[in-house]
Amino acid sequence: MSDTSELRRRQAEFSKELHGDDIGSKTGLSAFLSKNKTAQKEAVAKYLKHWDGKVDKDAEDRRLDDYNESTHSYYNVVTDFYEYGWGSSFHFSRYYKGENFFAAMARHEHYLAYKAGIQKGDLVLDVGCGVGGPAREISRFTGCNIIGLNNNDYQIAKAKWYSKKYQLEDQLDFVKGDFMNMDFEPNTFDKVYAIEATCHAPSLEGVYGQIYKVLKPGGTFAVYEWVMTEKYDETNPKHRKIAYEIELGDGIPKMFHVDVAKQALTNVGFEVTVAQDLADNDDEVPWYYPLTGEWKYVQTLSDIGTFFRTSFLGRKFTSAMVSLMEKVGIAPEGSTKVTHALEEAAVGLVAGGREKLFTPMMLFVAKKRLDASD
Length: 374
Ligand SMILES: CC(C)=CCC[C@@H](C)[C@H]1CC[C@H]2C3=C(CC[C@]12C)[C@@]1(C)CC[C@H](O)C[C@@H]1CC3
Ligand SMILES: C[S@@+](CC[C@H](N)C(=O)[O-])C[C@H]1O[C@@H](n2cnc3c(N)ncnc32)[C@H](O)[C@@H]1O
Hints:
Elements: H1 3-19, H2 28-33, H3 37-48, H4 57-65, H5 67-86, H6 101-116, E1 123-127, H7 133-142, E2 145-150, H8 153-165, E3 172-176, E4 189-195, H9 204-214, E5 215-228, H10 237-250, H11 258-267, E6 271-277, H12 304-310, H13 312-327, H14 335-354, E7 358-367
Parallel strand pairs: 1-2, 1-4, 2-3, 4-5
Antiparallel strand pairs: 5-7, 6-7
Bound molecules: the ligand CC(C)=CCC[C@@H](C)[C@H]1CC[C@H]2C3=C(CC[C@]12C)[C@@]1(C)CC[C@H](O)C[C@@H]1CC3 and S-adenosylmethionine.
């Protein structure tokens, strides 16, 4: 058995042990409370193994080398929290005045589909598809067919469960795989998109190169990339601290600079037609508002529940409850460490957003030339 198939087999077995077989019927905190306790402790340890506060080259290299296992473990332990706090699309969005949270999320997905030029009947790849929230929305919106690629077995099982529930099985499929080493034949997809996922790659050239390979000549790739902006200075300790919080709390081996991302697209052969930071718009309601705790930004009454869970106060409440449940043995050991790591994520993301050092919505649209050779 090759190293890749052996890793896949181990991850699939571990996932079954941790989450059990009955993936669909529970979500959010109820799913979280039904984990196998020994496996959960192991998953938390695997995720946090390389996060020891160090930012030197060796520490970074360890995180980059272990990207697959550590990201897989990260999503094993945060997916239920994400669904509980945020819903089933795991990304940020811009907000219009008066617009409801979930409407804004869907609009952000529609916008990417529009920029990618996705048409009815297209075969589309969703790179790092989460539990399939964006794929469900984009397939309904455009009438295209989507294959979601993901290296997390739990999320794939959930995505398949939702497709069945919403009768989208004819348009959607979800497959296990590492976006650094894709199994698809070259020139397979009409369009490819990625939403806040390729930042988990140890090398952007690596993942973009794979996308270029599987895209048909003349095809389009559209991505919302997580990058550090022009204002970011790696040698400034305050800036580096913010980047580290984002890396640790979001399971990212290394946050790259926007120029690295743009250069990587060009280096693998793409022609970049759009490079625009959607966060750089002076929006009245900032993209990071749900994590701030600032009630003045809440747009509709229907957002109050979501806002409470995502706000500083709501997070403290969840964290305290989880800690209590862990102490009395209801929640698995290590769960409090997860809520602390997510707290670091929230703090780093808001600080990065306020200072415009970081963006989760660097929009790149890139074309594979019609005359491209393999
Ligand atoms: C990790 C990447 C590349 C993208 C995910 C973006 C966001 C969906 C998440 C980033 C930080 C997350 C947090 C939560 C939900 C999902 C995020 C916003 C919580 C609000 C979930 C509920 C917990 O109690 C607190 C979390 C804070 C961080
Ligand atoms: C923040 S989530 C975004 C999910 C989805 N795009 C969405 O917006 O809901 C990042 C996703 O990338 C996936 N991912 C991370 N590293 C991966 C890898 N090496 N290969 C495939 N998928 C990966 C994660 O499992 C997760 O589903």
